[in-house]
Amino acid sequence: MSVDRRESLGVGEAISLEKGMADLERRLNERGPYRRIGKGESFHPKGPFFEIALLTSRNDDTVAIPNSGREEYERFICGLYGKKPVALGTKGKMVPFKLDSAGVGLNLTFGRGKDANLPMVNRAVSREHGVVWWREDEGFSVISLSEGKKTYCREISRDDVVEWSKLTEVTQEKGGETKQERKSEKRRREEREKSPLATYERIVIDGRSGEDKTSVALEKTLRNNKWGINFIGGVFDGHSLKKTAGPLAQKALPIFWKHLEETQGEDLREAIEVAAVAADEEIIRKFKGEDGTCVEVVITTGEGVYLVHIGDGQAFLQNGRGEIRSVGLPPHKPAEGGRVAGRLAVNRSWGDGKIKRMVSQEDLSPVPTVKFFEWEKLKEGGVEKLLVTTDGLLDLVKYGDFDLGGALEFGLGTEFKDAVRESKKDFVDLVARTGGSVKVDDVSALLLTFDFNH
User: Fold this and answer.
1) Which helix (H) or strand (E) holds 389?
2) 62 contacts 152 by C-beta, under 8 angstroms
3) Share above pLDDT 70 across residues of the chain, in percent, rounded to a whole number
Protein backbone atom coordinates (compact mmCIF):
# COMPACT_ATOMS: atom_id res chain seq x y z
CA MET A 1 0.00 0.00 0.00
CA SER A 2 1.29 3.42 -0.91
CA VAL A 3 1.99 5.70 2.02
CA ASP A 4 2.20 9.01 0.19
CA ARG A 5 -1.32 9.75 -0.99
CA ARG A 6 -1.05 13.45 -1.76
CA GLU A 7 -2.45 12.91 -5.20
CA SER A 8 -5.52 15.09 -5.08
CA LEU A 9 -5.76 18.80 -5.50
CA GLY A 10 -5.42 21.97 -3.53
CA VAL A 11 -2.63 21.02 -1.11
CA GLY A 12 0.10 23.11 -2.67
CA GLU A 13 1.30 20.72 -5.36
CA ALA A 14 2.06 22.14 -8.79
CA ILE A 15 1.85 20.22 -12.04
CA SER A 16 5.60 20.51 -12.42
CA LEU A 17 6.10 18.27 -9.39
CA GLU A 18 4.81 15.27 -11.31
CA LYS A 19 7.70 13.28 -12.75
CA GLY A 20 8.25 14.11 -16.36
CA MET A 21 5.86 17.08 -16.34
CA ALA A 22 8.44 19.85 -16.82
CA ASP A 23 7.60 20.15 -20.50
CA LEU A 24 3.91 20.43 -19.71
CA GLU A 25 4.66 23.24 -17.26
CA ARG A 26 6.65 25.08 -19.92
CA ARG A 27 3.91 24.68 -22.54
CA LEU A 28 1.26 25.97 -20.14
CA ASN A 29 3.33 29.04 -19.33
CA GLU A 30 3.82 29.77 -23.01
CA ARG A 31 0.08 29.90 -23.62
CA GLY A 32 -0.08 33.44 -22.34
CA PRO A 33 -1.79 35.20 -19.45
CA TYR A 34 -4.83 33.90 -17.66
CA ARG A 35 -8.17 35.68 -17.61
CA ARG A 36 -8.74 37.11 -14.14
CA ILE A 37 -12.27 37.00 -12.70
CA GLY A 38 -13.52 38.75 -9.57
CA LYS A 39 -16.38 37.98 -7.22
CA GLY A 40 -19.57 37.18 -9.13
CA GLU A 41 -17.77 37.13 -12.49
CA SER A 42 -17.63 34.02 -14.63
CA PHE A 43 -15.48 32.27 -17.20
CA HIS A 44 -16.96 30.12 -19.97
CA PRO A 45 -14.38 27.96 -21.74
CA LYS A 46 -15.17 27.01 -25.32
CA GLY A 47 -13.20 23.78 -25.23
CA PRO A 48 -13.49 20.73 -22.95
CA PHE A 49 -10.32 21.41 -20.91
CA PHE A 50 -9.29 24.40 -18.81
CA GLU A 51 -7.12 25.38 -15.88
CA ILE A 52 -7.98 27.34 -12.73
CA ALA A 53 -5.21 29.05 -10.75
CA LEU A 54 -5.68 30.72 -7.37
CA LEU A 55 -3.13 33.36 -6.47
CA THR A 56 -1.88 32.81 -2.91
CA SER A 57 1.00 35.28 -2.69
CA ARG A 58 0.55 38.78 -1.29
CA ASN A 59 1.17 40.50 -4.61
CA ASP A 60 -2.42 40.76 -5.81
CA ASP A 61 -1.59 43.29 -8.53
CA THR A 62 -0.12 40.72 -10.90
CA VAL A 63 -2.29 39.93 -13.90
CA ALA A 64 -0.31 37.41 -15.92
CA ILE A 65 0.70 34.49 -13.74
CA PRO A 66 2.82 32.42 -13.56
CA ASN A 67 5.08 33.89 -16.23
CA SER A 68 7.11 36.18 -13.95
CA GLY A 69 8.00 33.28 -11.65
CA ARG A 70 7.48 35.40 -8.53
CA GLU A 71 3.90 34.49 -7.66
CA GLU A 72 2.64 31.58 -5.59
CA TYR A 73 -0.57 29.87 -6.61
CA GLU A 74 -2.58 26.68 -6.44
CA ARG A 75 -4.14 25.30 -9.57
CA PHE A 76 -6.09 22.40 -10.98
CA ILE A 77 -7.46 21.21 -14.31
CA CYS A 78 -11.08 20.50 -15.23
CA GLY A 79 -12.32 18.57 -18.22
CA LEU A 80 -14.46 15.75 -19.53
CA TYR A 81 -13.42 12.16 -18.96
CA GLY A 82 -15.65 10.28 -21.33
CA LYS A 83 -18.86 12.23 -20.78
CA LYS A 84 -18.23 12.91 -17.09
CA PRO A 85 -16.91 16.27 -15.82
CA VAL A 86 -13.98 15.86 -13.43
CA ALA A 87 -11.18 17.86 -11.84
CA LEU A 88 -7.66 16.51 -12.23
CA GLY A 89 -4.87 16.33 -9.70
CA THR A 90 -1.16 16.33 -10.41
CA LYS A 91 -0.87 12.55 -10.35
CA GLY A 92 -3.98 11.64 -12.28
CA LYS A 93 -6.46 11.35 -9.41
CA MET A 94 -9.93 12.51 -10.38
CA VAL A 95 -12.40 14.43 -8.27
CA PRO A 96 -15.90 13.95 -9.72
CA PHE A 97 -18.47 16.72 -9.93
CA LYS A 98 -21.55 16.39 -7.69
CA LEU A 99 -25.22 16.54 -8.60
CA ASP A 100 -26.52 20.03 -7.75
CA SER A 101 -29.40 20.65 -5.36
CA ALA A 102 -31.84 21.24 -8.21
CA GLY A 103 -30.89 17.94 -9.82
CA VAL A 104 -30.41 19.52 -13.26
CA GLY A 105 -26.62 19.64 -13.53
CA LEU A 106 -23.29 18.94 -11.86
CA ASN A 107 -20.96 21.22 -9.95
CA LEU A 108 -17.65 21.27 -8.10
CA THR A 109 -17.01 23.68 -5.22
CA PHE A 110 -13.44 24.62 -4.31
CA GLY A 111 -11.95 26.54 -1.41
CA ARG A 112 -10.63 26.31 2.13
CA GLY A 113 -13.92 25.24 3.71
CA LYS A 114 -14.25 21.68 4.92
CA ASP A 115 -17.43 21.19 2.86
CA ALA A 116 -15.71 21.98 -0.44
CA ASN A 117 -15.61 19.17 -2.99
CA LEU A 118 -12.04 20.27 -3.65
CA PRO A 119 -10.65 21.37 -0.24
CA MET A 120 -7.47 23.46 0.00
CA VAL A 121 -5.25 24.34 2.94
CA ASN A 122 -3.62 27.64 1.98
CA ARG A 123 -4.89 30.47 4.17
CA ALA A 124 -4.91 32.87 1.21
CA VAL A 125 -7.68 30.84 -0.42
CA SER A 126 -11.24 31.75 0.59
CA ARG A 127 -13.43 29.21 2.39
CA GLU A 128 -15.90 29.32 -0.52
CA HIS A 129 -13.56 30.45 -3.26
CA GLY A 130 -15.57 29.41 -6.28
CA VAL A 131 -17.67 26.84 -8.10
CA VAL A 132 -17.45 25.13 -11.48
CA TRP A 133 -20.79 24.29 -13.09
CA TRP A 134 -21.39 21.83 -15.90
CA ARG A 135 -24.53 21.45 -18.00
CA GLU A 136 -24.71 18.99 -20.86
CA ASP A 137 -26.22 21.58 -23.22
CA GLU A 138 -24.11 24.54 -22.00
CA GLY A 139 -20.72 23.11 -21.06
CA PHE A 140 -18.58 24.51 -18.23
CA SER A 141 -18.84 27.76 -16.28
CA VAL A 142 -16.46 28.97 -13.58
CA ILE A 143 -17.85 31.45 -11.04
CA SER A 144 -15.66 33.24 -8.51
CA LEU A 145 -17.16 33.69 -5.01
CA SER A 146 -14.05 35.20 -3.47
CA GLU A 147 -14.01 38.77 -2.20
CA GLY A 148 -10.65 40.39 -2.92
CA LYS A 149 -8.92 37.13 -3.90
CA LYS A 150 -7.72 36.47 -7.42
CA THR A 151 -9.06 33.63 -9.56
CA TYR A 152 -7.46 33.03 -12.96
CA CYS A 153 -8.73 30.79 -15.76
CA ARG A 154 -7.54 29.75 -19.20
CA GLU A 155 -8.29 27.10 -21.76
CA ILE A 156 -5.77 24.34 -22.42
CA SER A 157 -5.52 21.62 -25.03
CA ARG A 158 -5.98 17.89 -24.63
CA ASP A 159 -2.24 17.46 -25.16
CA ASP A 160 -1.60 19.51 -22.03
CA VAL A 161 -3.55 17.17 -19.78
CA VAL A 162 -1.93 14.27 -17.92
CA GLU A 163 -2.27 10.84 -19.49
CA TRP A 164 -5.92 9.89 -19.37
CA SER A 165 -5.00 6.23 -19.38
CA LYS A 166 -3.74 6.63 -15.80
CA LEU A 167 -7.16 7.65 -14.56
CA THR A 168 -9.67 5.35 -12.91
CA GLU A 169 -13.25 5.73 -14.08
CA VAL A 170 -15.66 7.17 -11.52
CA THR A 171 -19.37 6.65 -12.14
CA GLN A 172 -21.61 9.48 -10.96
CA GLU A 173 -24.68 8.42 -9.01
CA LYS A 174 -27.80 10.31 -7.98
CA GLY A 175 -27.19 12.39 -4.88
CA GLY A 176 -23.52 12.79 -5.67
CA GLU A 177 -22.37 9.47 -4.16
CA THR A 178 -20.15 7.35 -6.38
CA LYS A 179 -19.66 3.62 -6.58
CA GLN A 180 -16.07 4.24 -5.60
CA GLU A 181 -17.18 6.06 -2.43
CA ARG A 182 -19.52 3.22 -1.44
CA LYS A 183 -16.76 0.66 -1.97
CA SER A 184 -14.39 2.77 0.13
CA GLU A 185 -16.86 2.88 3.02
CA LYS A 186 -17.21 -0.91 2.93
CA ARG A 187 -13.42 -1.27 2.81
CA ARG A 188 -13.02 1.03 5.82
CA ARG A 189 -15.49 -1.02 7.86
CA GLU A 190 -13.62 -4.21 7.01
CA GLU A 191 -10.18 -2.76 7.74
CA ARG A 192 -11.32 -1.36 11.08
CA GLU A 193 -11.50 -4.93 12.32
CA LYS A 194 -7.95 -5.75 11.17
CA SER A 195 -6.01 -3.33 13.36
CA PRO A 196 -4.14 -4.72 16.38
CA LEU A 197 -5.45 -4.16 19.87
CA ALA A 198 -3.97 -0.91 21.18
CA THR A 199 -3.97 0.13 24.82
CA TYR A 200 -2.85 3.57 25.90
CA GLU A 201 -1.45 5.49 28.85
CA ARG A 202 -1.07 9.25 29.17
CA ILE A 203 0.69 11.46 31.63
CA VAL A 204 1.56 15.06 32.46
CA ILE A 205 4.50 15.36 34.85
CA ASP A 206 4.58 18.43 37.13
CA GLY A 207 2.50 20.61 34.81
CA ARG A 208 2.56 23.63 37.10
CA SER A 209 1.85 26.02 34.23
CA GLY A 210 -1.29 24.07 33.32
CA GLU A 211 -0.53 24.42 29.62
CA ASP A 212 0.58 20.85 28.88
CA LYS A 213 -2.42 18.62 28.20
CA THR A 214 -3.16 15.11 26.96
CA SER A 215 -6.45 14.20 25.34
CA VAL A 216 -8.03 11.00 24.00
CA ALA A 217 -11.38 10.67 22.24
CA LEU A 218 -13.84 8.27 23.84
CA GLU A 219 -14.72 5.08 21.99
CA LYS A 220 -18.36 6.14 21.65
CA THR A 221 -17.21 9.37 19.99
CA LEU A 222 -15.48 7.38 17.24
CA ARG A 223 -18.28 4.89 16.67
CA ASN A 224 -19.27 4.53 13.01
CA ASN A 225 -17.05 7.41 11.83
CA LYS A 226 -16.61 7.54 8.07
CA TRP A 227 -12.79 7.36 8.17
CA GLY A 228 -12.58 4.01 9.97
CA ILE A 229 -10.63 5.62 12.83
CA ASN A 230 -10.55 3.51 15.97
CA PHE A 231 -8.26 5.68 18.12
CA ILE A 232 -7.33 9.35 18.22
CA GLY A 233 -5.40 11.03 20.99
CA GLY A 234 -2.52 13.40 21.50
CA VAL A 235 -0.38 15.70 23.58
CA PHE A 236 -0.65 19.48 23.42
CA ASP A 237 2.00 21.93 24.57
CA GLY A 238 0.21 25.25 25.06
CA HIS A 239 1.99 28.57 25.11
CA SER A 240 1.12 32.22 25.77
CA LEU A 241 2.69 35.25 27.38
CA LYS A 242 0.07 35.21 30.14
CA LYS A 243 0.07 31.43 30.77
CA THR A 244 -3.57 31.17 29.71
CA ALA A 245 -3.30 28.49 27.00
CA GLY A 246 -4.44 25.55 29.17
CA PRO A 247 -8.11 25.61 28.08
CA LEU A 248 -7.04 25.92 24.43
CA ALA A 249 -4.77 22.86 24.68
CA GLN A 250 -7.52 20.94 26.48
CA LYS A 251 -10.12 21.57 23.76
CA ALA A 252 -7.85 21.32 20.72
CA LEU A 253 -8.50 17.62 20.06
CA PRO A 254 -12.33 17.80 20.18
CA ILE A 255 -12.25 20.77 17.81
CA PHE A 256 -9.93 18.95 15.40
CA TRP A 257 -12.04 15.77 15.54
CA LYS A 258 -15.21 17.70 14.73
CA HIS A 259 -13.67 19.17 11.60
CA LEU A 260 -12.10 15.86 10.56
CA GLU A 261 -15.50 14.16 10.67
CA GLU A 262 -17.04 16.93 8.59
CA THR A 263 -14.31 17.06 5.93
CA GLN A 264 -15.29 15.59 2.59
CA GLY A 265 -13.14 13.38 0.39
CA GLU A 266 -11.60 9.94 0.36
CA ASP A 267 -7.99 10.60 1.33
CA LEU A 268 -7.49 10.66 5.11
CA ARG A 269 -4.06 12.28 4.89
CA GLU A 270 -5.48 15.18 2.90
CA ALA A 271 -8.52 15.38 5.19
CA ILE A 272 -6.20 15.70 8.19
CA GLU A 273 -4.50 18.71 6.59
CA VAL A 274 -7.81 20.38 5.75
CA ALA A 275 -9.26 19.68 9.22
CA ALA A 276 -6.10 21.02 10.86
CA VAL A 277 -6.50 24.37 9.10
CA ALA A 278 -10.21 24.51 9.96
CA ALA A 279 -9.44 23.66 13.62
CA ASP A 280 -6.85 26.44 13.74
CA GLU A 281 -9.38 28.96 12.47
CA GLU A 282 -11.95 27.93 15.09
CA ILE A 283 -9.34 28.04 17.86
CA ILE A 284 -8.32 31.56 16.83
CA ARG A 285 -11.97 32.65 16.94
CA LYS A 286 -12.68 31.09 20.33
CA PHE A 287 -9.51 31.83 22.29
CA LYS A 288 -7.38 34.85 23.01
CA GLY A 289 -5.13 35.95 20.20
CA GLU A 290 -1.94 35.40 22.20
CA ASP A 291 -2.72 31.75 23.06
CA GLY A 292 -1.46 28.83 20.97
CA THR A 293 -0.40 25.21 21.17
CA CYS A 294 1.95 22.69 19.59
CA VAL A 295 0.31 19.43 18.58
CA GLU A 296 1.25 15.74 18.46
CA VAL A 297 -1.74 13.55 17.54
CA VAL A 298 -1.91 9.79 16.94
CA ILE A 299 -4.65 8.33 14.72
CA THR A 300 -5.07 4.59 14.15
CA THR A 301 -7.17 2.95 11.43
CA GLY A 302 -7.40 -0.54 10.00
CA GLU A 303 -4.49 0.33 7.70
CA GLY A 304 -2.01 1.75 10.18
CA VAL A 305 -0.97 4.74 12.28
CA TYR A 306 -1.01 8.42 11.32
CA LEU A 307 1.12 10.92 13.22
CA VAL A 308 -0.02 14.54 13.04
CA HIS A 309 2.86 16.84 13.97
CA ILE A 310 2.75 20.61 14.54
CA GLY A 311 5.56 22.27 16.47
CA ASP A 312 8.55 20.83 18.32
CA GLY A 313 7.42 17.51 19.81
CA GLN A 314 8.56 14.05 18.71
CA ALA A 315 7.48 10.40 18.44
CA PHE A 316 9.40 7.22 19.25
CA LEU A 317 8.96 3.53 18.37
CA GLN A 318 10.13 0.74 20.70
CA ASN A 319 10.48 -2.93 19.79
CA GLY A 320 10.20 -6.00 22.00
CA ARG A 321 13.92 -5.91 22.82
CA GLY A 322 13.56 -2.46 24.36
CA GLU A 323 15.36 -0.74 21.49
CA ILE A 324 13.93 2.69 20.79
CA ARG A 325 14.22 5.05 17.84
CA SER A 326 12.83 8.42 16.88
CA VAL A 327 10.50 8.53 13.88
CA GLY A 328 12.25 11.73 12.78
CA LEU A 329 9.46 14.29 12.89
CA PRO A 330 11.02 17.55 11.69
CA PRO A 331 11.17 20.34 14.28
CA HIS A 332 9.03 23.22 13.09
CA LYS A 333 11.33 26.05 14.06
CA PRO A 334 12.38 29.32 12.41
CA ALA A 335 15.71 29.33 10.62
CA GLU A 336 18.90 29.92 12.60
CA GLY A 337 17.22 29.75 15.98
CA GLY A 338 15.15 32.87 15.44
CA ARG A 339 11.63 33.58 16.64
CA VAL A 340 8.49 34.33 14.66
CA ALA A 341 7.63 38.01 15.16
CA GLY A 342 10.42 38.05 17.74
CA ARG A 343 8.33 35.92 20.13
CA LEU A 344 7.43 32.41 19.02
CA ALA A 345 10.08 29.66 18.93
CA VAL A 346 8.08 27.45 16.51
CA ASN A 347 6.80 28.26 13.03
CA ARG A 348 3.79 25.94 13.07
CA SER A 349 1.04 25.98 15.67
CA TRP A 350 -2.68 26.12 16.34
CA GLY A 351 -3.93 29.43 17.65
CA ASP A 352 -1.53 32.37 17.98
CA GLY A 353 -4.03 34.46 16.04
CA LYS A 354 -2.42 37.77 16.96
CA ILE A 355 0.92 36.71 15.47
CA LYS A 356 -0.68 35.05 12.42
CA ARG A 357 -2.36 38.33 11.54
CA MET A 358 1.10 39.95 11.47
CA VAL A 359 2.96 37.37 9.36
CA SER A 360 2.41 35.16 6.30
CA GLN A 361 1.37 31.50 6.41
CA GLU A 362 4.91 30.61 5.34
CA ASP A 363 6.18 32.23 8.57
CA LEU A 364 3.60 30.62 10.88
CA SER A 365 1.41 27.81 9.56
CA PRO A 366 -1.24 25.45 11.01
CA VAL A 367 -0.60 22.80 8.35
CA PRO A 368 0.82 19.62 9.94
CA THR A 369 3.51 17.20 8.91
CA VAL A 370 1.69 13.88 8.55
CA LYS A 371 3.51 10.53 8.75
CA PHE A 372 1.94 7.14 8.15
CA PHE A 373 3.08 3.66 9.26
CA GLU A 374 1.44 0.49 7.96
CA TRP A 375 0.57 -2.16 10.52
CA GLU A 376 2.43 -4.81 8.53
CA LYS A 377 5.63 -2.74 8.54
CA LEU A 378 5.37 -2.12 12.28
CA LYS A 379 4.75 -5.82 12.91
CA GLU A 380 7.72 -6.83 10.74
CA GLY A 381 9.90 -4.43 12.71
CA GLY A 382 8.80 -5.93 16.01
CA VAL A 383 7.33 -2.60 17.17
CA GLU A 384 5.35 -2.89 20.38
CA LYS A 385 5.11 0.70 21.62
CA LEU A 386 4.61 4.18 20.20
CA LEU A 387 5.34 7.24 22.33
CA VAL A 388 4.44 10.81 21.40
CA THR A 389 5.72 13.57 23.63
CA THR A 390 6.40 17.29 23.94
CA ASP A 391 9.74 19.04 23.86
CA GLY A 392 10.13 18.88 27.65
CA LEU A 393 11.04 15.20 27.47
CA LEU A 394 13.15 15.75 24.36
CA ASP A 395 15.35 18.20 26.28
CA LEU A 396 16.05 15.52 28.88
CA VAL A 397 16.91 12.94 26.21
CA LYS A 398 19.15 15.38 24.34
CA TYR A 399 20.83 17.24 27.17
CA GLY A 400 20.14 15.25 30.34
CA ASP A 401 21.21 11.80 29.11
CA PHE A 402 17.78 10.38 29.94
CA ASP A 403 17.40 6.62 29.23
CA LEU A 404 14.04 6.76 27.48
CA GLY A 405 14.03 3.11 26.41
CA GLY A 406 14.72 1.86 29.92
CA ALA A 407 12.18 4.21 31.47
CA LEU A 408 9.44 2.89 29.17
CA GLU A 409 9.92 -0.72 30.26
CA PHE A 410 7.03 -0.44 32.71
CA GLY A 411 4.97 2.10 30.80
CA LEU A 412 4.11 5.57 32.10
CA GLY A 413 3.67 4.55 35.72
CA THR A 414 5.47 5.55 38.90
CA GLU A 415 8.86 4.33 37.65
CA PHE A 416 8.62 6.57 34.59
CA LYS A 417 7.58 9.60 36.64
CA ASP A 418 10.42 9.08 39.10
CA ALA A 419 12.96 8.66 36.29
CA VAL A 420 11.82 11.88 34.60
CA ARG A 421 11.90 13.89 37.80
CA GLU A 422 15.33 12.56 38.73
CA SER A 423 16.65 13.40 35.28
CA LYS A 424 15.22 16.93 35.48
CA LYS A 425 16.89 17.47 38.86
CA ASP A 426 20.24 16.12 37.63
CA PHE A 427 20.08 18.31 34.51
CA VAL A 428 19.35 21.47 36.51
CA ASP A 429 22.14 20.64 39.00
CA LEU A 430 24.60 20.01 36.15
CA VAL A 431 23.88 23.38 34.58
CA ALA A 432 24.10 25.08 37.98
CA ARG A 433 27.59 23.63 38.57
CA THR A 434 28.73 25.37 35.40
CA GLY A 435 27.45 28.67 36.74
CA GLY A 436 24.29 28.76 34.67
CA SER A 437 20.60 28.16 35.22
CA VAL A 438 17.96 26.38 33.18
CA LYS A 439 14.21 25.81 33.33
CA VAL A 440 13.07 22.41 32.12
CA ASP A 441 9.62 22.38 30.52
CA ASP A 442 6.74 20.28 31.75
CA VAL A 443 6.59 16.75 30.30
CA SER A 444 3.46 15.30 28.71
CA ALA A 445 3.35 11.98 26.88
CA LEU A 446 0.98 9.48 25.30
CA LEU A 447 2.06 5.83 25.03
CA LEU A 448 0.32 3.23 22.85
CA THR A 449 1.10 -0.48 23.26
CA PHE A 450 0.17 -2.77 20.36
CA ASP A 451 -0.93 -6.42 20.53
CA PHE A 452 -0.56 -7.89 17.07
CA ASN A 453 -1.88 -11.28 18.26
CA HIS A 454 -5.32 -9.81 18.80
Assistant:
1) strand 383-389
2) no
3) 74
**Can you spell out the DSSP letters for 230-276?**
-EEEEEEEEE-TTS--HHHHHHHHHHHHHHHHH--SS-HHHHHHHHH
Are the C-beta atoms of 421 and 205 separated by less than 8 Å? yes
Q: What is the DSSP letter of 302?
A: S
At 229 the three-state DSSP class reads coil
Q: Please, are residues 85 and 97 in contact by the beta-carbon 8 Å criterion?
A: yes
66: cis peptide before it, omega within 30°? yes
Q: Look at domain 192-451 and name its CATH class.
A: alpha beta
**Average pLDDT over every residue of 176-204:** 64
State the Cα–Cα distance between residues 221 and 181, nearest whole angstrom: 23
3-state secondary structure 334-347: CHHHCCECCCECCC
Q: Distance (Å, rounded) from C-alpha 309 to C-alpha 298? A: 9
Q: Is 107 helix (H, G, I), strand (E, B) or coil?
A: strand
Tell me how far apart the alpha carbons of residues 115 and 127 are, in angstroms, rounded to a whole number. 9
Tens digit of each residue's pLDDT (9 = 90 or more) over 415-438: 888 888 888 888 777 777 777 666
Going by C-beta distance under 8 Å and a sequence separation of 6 or more, which residues neighbour residue 278? 112, 113, 114, 259, 263
- Residues contacting 399, CB < 8 A, separation 6+: 427
Give the amino acid at 157. S
- Positions of CATH 3.60.40.10 in the chain: 192-451
Cα dihedral sign for 7, 9, 259, 240? positive
Q: What is the pLDDT of residues 343-369, one digit of tens each?
A: 889 999 999 999 988 888 788 999 999
Which 8-state DSSP code applies to residue 188?
A: H
Q: Are 227 and 271 in contact (CB under 8 A)?
A: yes
Measured between alpha carbons, how far is 131 from 109 in angstroms, rounded to an integer?
A: 4
In three-state secondary structure terms, 95 is strand
> What is the per-residue pLDDT for 398?
79
Pairing of β 118-119 and β 106-111: parallel
Say if residues 247 and 351 touch (Cβ distance below 8 Å).
Answer: no
Quote the CA–CA distance of 76 and 73 in Å, as a whole number: 10
